[in-house]
Amino acid sequence: MSFLGLGRPQPTSAEKIAAVENELKVVAEMHSRMIKVCTAKCIDRSYREADLAKGEAVCLDRCAAKFFDVHQTISEQLQREGAARGFGA
After folding, report:
1. Domains and their CATH numbers in the chain
2. Tell me: the pLDDT tens digits for 58-80?
3. Contact between residue 89 and residue 63 where contact means Cβ atoms under 8 Å apart
4. Considering only CA atoms, which of 1, 14, 16 is closest in space to residue 88?
5. What is the pLDDT of residues 5-16, one digit of tens each?
């Protein structure tokens, strides 16, 4: 069976589930890396105060925003490359 007559078969339910599971894995890994990197960069290890200092909070916000921007840019580029090679729907 082709998808819109383009000669490519439609993905099966199992393939769709696998794609969603893979995307969740990628997002979870990105989140873990972001937490590790941003915490190491932004949080003062002396723990002088129970709450985040304003500078630490701002640093964490900026670090997280950069991670999401880079992740989005890379994802878009990979999708374009995949589409150019005939992958994806």
Report:
1. 13-84 (1.10.287.810)
2. 999 999 999 999 989 998 998 89
3. no
4. 16
5. 555 667 788 888
